[in-house]
């Protein structure tokens, strides 16, 4: 579950009157399993969502939250520092400051909008496109998923994925925000070429990727360069090198890692 989904779940729990504790990382010093701002939800009925990184520290935080929820008294804010050493059965060597707070309006107001790692305009709803959307389901990004065909998108998409059926997918490139990634993997090489051309005509995109082999790249380069375009920014083949296998899930994982490398660290949400 990504940060945006976790915050949405917290809002839903509060609206439904579900009694819960929000355990958040106030500070992370040295080597620690999660960064400042990470959160864990612990509900009175035993439900959990989010993570502080796992390990004994998380188990201890869950136990403390459940103990507080079982008392017949108002929940209060508690802040505690933990050294991640032998006393916790962990050997990270750093330290974390955890805040326990009731899930209420104040806790949600103090919960900032999640950072967005990148915005992706993904062209093509085939097997690899679908696998990539699944691979990015728990990543704090925004995806506009474009395809010209009818009824190709799954119905159970994450909230951060916007499906768009378009009769002219290449025209949608103009609406991608500056700095976004445009990734092309449609069912048609001619359509791929039109979309890549539209992307390269813009000089402000953070990533322009095209699925395909080195042979496909060479063919596209000749045609694009003949139209006066600089193909030096084109990423093709896509994905991190060294991964063996052409299964959609393998390709998607390689592309997901490449996008995370290209757009790390996370950036603030765009307006």
What does it look like?
The protein is an alpha/beta fold. The mean pLDDT is 92. The protein is built from 8 helices and 11 strands. It has a 6-stranded parallel beta sheet with strand order 8-7-6-9-10-11, covered by helices on one side. A 5-stranded antiparallel beta sheet has the order 3-2-1-5-4, with helices on both faces. It starts with a helix and ends in a 9-residue tail after the last helix. It is 32% helix and 21% strand. Helix 4 packs across helix 8.
Helix content: 25-40%
Distance between the termini: 23 Å
Chain-averaged pLDDT: 92
How many strands appear in the DSSP assignment? Answer: 11
Quickly describe the structure:
The chain is 32% helix and 21% strand. By secondary structure, it is α/β, with parallel strands linked by helices.
Please tag this protein with its features:
271 residues; alpha/beta; 6-stranded parallel beta sheet; 5-stranded antiparallel beta sheet; 8 helices; elongated
Fold topology:
Blueprint: H1 3-15, E1 20-29, E2 39-43, E3 48-50, H2 55-70, E4 78-83, E5 95-102, H3 105-109, E6 119-123, H4 127-135, E7 142-147, E8 161-165, H5 169-172, E9 181-184, H6 189-200, E10 207-210, H7 214-226, E11 234-235, H8 248-262
Parallel strand pairs: 6-7, 6-9, 7-8, 9-10, 10-11
Antiparallel strand pairs: 1-2, 1-5, 2-3, 4-5
Helix pairs in contact: 4-8
